[in-house]
Design brief:
Length: about 550
């Protein structure tokens, strides 16, 4: 049975039996229920809350806007930009989160993808995860064997700028994924936390705060418990249609039942976002964020929508349940903040959009298909090496059948030139490939200053490009080509394309007393930092941002400098 977040049964989910936690809960509840005496309006809010909902596309926002009644409904009555853009081509988690609180496109931030290759790295594993430090001895990029780090983020975040202005500023980030928390918080945050099989974790060698330890224990107990099937809300009935998968099984009718101890299934359930929001609220209370002399920054990364989208697609009963649960949990979170009396402002957006699985799209008469396995870098590289007689294996490195491709350093200049030409020719001739560019071509192409809906494919790829990290060839697939060649239960759909269904995200702002309005014209996630900076009177050098301040005041006055 689905539990509404305002019910005692729902709240008991996060209350352990131990007496120590009872005291913590009592203290937190006291803080939540206290009323701060009304004061004269301040020029800046005391607390900035930035929320990123992973894979929450503009399409999903529009689809469910008329159904929500909780937190998303509140934000929909604020200042609404329904046509926000993650303008760059790399519509993945790490690049997307890197734009939100840096104010620069992902290439400029140095975060070109979730993973890229550095053939000069000392370790045998040449793949680099965006939120790791590959220089740490004994690490690998995958399988949890990496050392989490913000070292690849080349620009400062809003939190770093706020702390530089006033060291009393507190910056706390908690998220479902490490790369979400790390890319939005940057270096030097007071706490940077993310979900783990142990409940919560942070950087290697970091001692969790007492409150974080308590929260971790509560979440670990929830992971260890069996997840009961949820009741299907009546609003989701029309989406409760099974979609058969090519390799067996189906999606579309799930209820989030999960076996005890299955962390992956926990992440791909509404319960994960509830855990993150409960932790964020408890950390705010424990630290008294928003109650001091400086403006504080609370960063929340909600990842369940992305895990649900990957596991089940974007249009089934599963996503419907997830969005309605997210709406309820956000509503509960905001009510807890309301009860403090703190003057807080909220910004909510997403790191990227999403694309439904092709089997459901085809069923609905929308042309879509899965990628040809021949486009995998390993397959393509072998074909070219064999044709040219190069004797190099592997010839080509890449994290998937699109994006950045890297040629082996074992090639002579003549071999490299021949391989590059052959690879480009084969890719350009493939019916599923939209465009192929060399690194030199993108390096010479200026970053577009036009409105993001007018950007060419080359413009989009350029915004994700970094000369020291991007591949020798950068590949874009045609629309509605899902870059998963074969699928089964657990991974059926994805994102990452250059197309607007992956680029467009909502951008929502709310503050008590702020008159709501809607601006349908295109804006970009890089606009969020200068907008929030203006709200708290933090000067921003225009040369250090790719964005612009968005006026949050309806009428002749302005919130921008």
């Amino acid at each position: 049975m689905a539990l509404a977040p305002h019910t005692p049964a729902y709240r008991r989910r996060w209350i352990p039996a131990c007496a120590g936690m009872t005291k913590v809960v009592a203290a937190v509840a006291a803080l939540f229920s206290s009323t701060i005496a009304a004061a004269q309006p301040q020029p800046a809010p005391k607390l900035i809350v930035v929320i990123a909902v992973d894979q929450f596309s503009a399409d999903l926002f529009a689809e469910y806007r008329g159904m929500v009644t909780g937190g998303l409904a509140r934000l929909s009555q604020g200042v609404v930009f329904p046509s926000g853009y993650q303008a760059q081509a790399a519509t993945e988690t790490c690049p997307g989160h890197a734009t939100i609180l840096t104010g620069v496109h992902s290439g400029r931030a140095g975060v070109i993808a979730n993973n890229w290759f550095n053939l000069d790295v000392a370790r045998a594993d040449k793949r680099v995860y965006c939120a790791e430090d590959p220089a740490v001895p004994g690490t690998e990029s995958g399988g949890g064997k990496y050392a989490p780090s913000p070292v690849h983020l080349l620009v400062p975040t809003l939190g770093q700028a706020m702390k530089a202005r006033d060291p009393r500023t507190q910056v706390v980030a908690v998220a479902g994924k490490d790369r979400a928390a790390i890319m939005m918080a940057g270096a030097g945050a007071d706490e940077t936390l993310w979900l783990a099989p142990t409940g919560l974790t942070s950087y290697r060698g970091t001692e969790l705060s007492p409150l974080a330890k308590t929260a971790a224990g509560v979440i670990a107990n929830a992971i260890a418990a069996e997840g009961k099937a949820l009741d299907l809300p009546v609003q989701c009935a029309a989406r409760d249609i099974p979609i058969a998968l090519p390799q067996g099984g189906s999606v579309g009718t799930g209820r989030f039942a999960r076996p005890a101890g299955n962390f992956r299934a926990f992440l791909a359930s509404p319960q994960a976002d509830g855990a993150v929001l409960a932790t964020a609220a408890a950390l705010r209370a424990d630290r008294k964020m928003g109650e001091g002399t400086a403006t504080d920054l609370l960063i929340v990364g909600l990842s369940a929508t992305d895990y649900v989208g990957h596991a089940f697609g974007t249009e089934g009963a599963e996503m419907c349940q997830q969005i309605l649960s997210l709406d309820r949990d956000l509503g509960d979170f905001f009510k807890r903040l309301d009860a403090t009396g703190i003057d807080y402002a909220v910004a909510l957006t997403a790191d990227h959009g999403g694309h439904d699985l092709p089997e459901r799209l085809v069923q609905n008469a929308i042309p879509a298909e899965r990628v040809d396995p021949a486009l995998a870098p390993s397959v393509l590289g072998k074909a070219v090496a064999d044709k040219l007689g190069l004797g190099v294996d592997p010839l080509l490195y890449g994290d998937g059948p699109f994006g950045d491709f890297y040629l082996s350093r074992a090639l002579s200049p003549a071999q490299r030139s021949a391989a590059l030409a052959e690879l480009r020719a084969q890719l350009a001739a493939h019916r599923q490939v939209e465009a192929v560019f060399t690194a030199d071509e993108l390096k010479a192409h200026p970053v577009s200053r036009r409105s993001p809906e007018l950007w060419s494919v080359k413009d989009r790829l350029r915004a994700s490009f970094h000369p020291d990290r991007s591949g020798d060839l950068i590949v874009a697939l045609k629309p509605r080509v899902t870059p998963i060649p074969e699928t089964g239960v657990g991974y059926v759909a994805t994102h990452g394309s250059v197309w607007d269904y992956d680029r467009r995200v909502p951008m929502l702002f709310w503050r008590k007393g702020l008159a709501g309005f809607e601006q349908p014209n295109p804006v970009m996630t890089v606009d969020i930092l200068p907008t929030l900076a203006a709200l708290i009177g933090l000067p921003i050098d225009p040369a250090q941002t790719d964005g612009r301040c968005l006026d949050l005041v309806s009428g002749p006055a302005t919130s921008c400098p």
